[in-house]
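Appendix C: a fully annotated inverse folding record. The material below is reproduced so that readers can follow the format used throughout the book. The structure is listed first as tokens, followed by the designed sequence.
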């Protein structure tokens, strides 16, 4: 519905601002305050301290950040390779094959993450493939959950990629691998970086499947936050949550600074 009067527009903006503050800004503000709080017996916290951050960086929780970063980067890189490979492979197939096979890659995104974790736990808890209690099962869980988004981003990039560039390369005698490396992938770079960023962000915040399969020596930050808050250590959990947000944001900003060649739209 279109709004033409200035009063109706102002009312909509005010309503959107109130909803945005209540849904997005207020929860984040509460977490920030809790991460510095020493006590919270009244409306606002008191006895502000940096002890929770010191414990997160130097105490028992110090290894959670490294674990999450390694898991997120490795799983996202593997998902990027697998998703891009699948998208490129489907691109060379017929229209009917693409319509039949494409939905299969999006099945993991439609399945609850807890179900994915339970399935992996049941499938790999006995020979001949015994992965229960290993880091590999955590990486597989993340890979299953984020690969659909990587595939979707790369497929969208291929749909917007003008075929003339590759046709010119072929007319000049470029071999398939040379064309892929020097023409197709550089033009897809914005979509590849977007796919990695989305996969990394999802992996850093993944809890449902991870809490089902993680071994004691490989605890990610979401699992650590859940464990702390479940024991009543809400302030320490809030500090870990803010560190998780900060590190994820810094990595995404760094990825966005990588120079790319934008693909020309059709």
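Designed amino acids, in order:
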């Amino acid at each position: 519905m279109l709004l033409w009067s200035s009063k109706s527009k102002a009312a909509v903006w005010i309503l959107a601002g109130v909803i945005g503050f209540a849904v997005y800004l207020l929860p984040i503000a509460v977490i920030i305050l809790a991460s510095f709080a020493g006590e919270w017996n009244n409306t606002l916290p008191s006895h502000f301290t940096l002890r929770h951050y010191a414990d997160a960086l130097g105490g028992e929780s110090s290894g959670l950040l490294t674990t999450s970063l390694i898991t997120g980067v490795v799983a996202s890189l593997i998902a990027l390779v697998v998703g891009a490979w699948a998208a490129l492979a489907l691109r060379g197939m017929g229209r009917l094959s693409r319509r039949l096979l494409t939905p299969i890659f999006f099945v993991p995104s439609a399945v609850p993450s807890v179900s994915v974790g339970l399935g992996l736990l049941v499938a790999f808890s006995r020979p001949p493939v015994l992965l229960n209690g290993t880091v590999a099962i955590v990486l597989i869980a993340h890979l299953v959950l984020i690969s659909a988004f990587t595939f979707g981003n790369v497929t969208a990039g291929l749909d917007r990629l003008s075929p003339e560039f590759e046709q010119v390369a072929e007319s000049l005698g470029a071999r398939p691998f040379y064309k892929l490396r020097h023409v197709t992938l550089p033009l897809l770079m914005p979509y590849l970086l977007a796919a990695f960023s989305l996969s990394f962000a999802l992996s850093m915040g993944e809890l449902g499947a991870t809490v089902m399969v993680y071994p004691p020596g490989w605890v990610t930050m979401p699992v650590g936050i859940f464990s702390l808050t479940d024991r009543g250590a809400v302030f320490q959990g809030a500090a870990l949550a803010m560190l998780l947000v900060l590190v994820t944001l810094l990595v995404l900003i760094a990825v966005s600074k990588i120079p790319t060649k934008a693909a020309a739209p059709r």
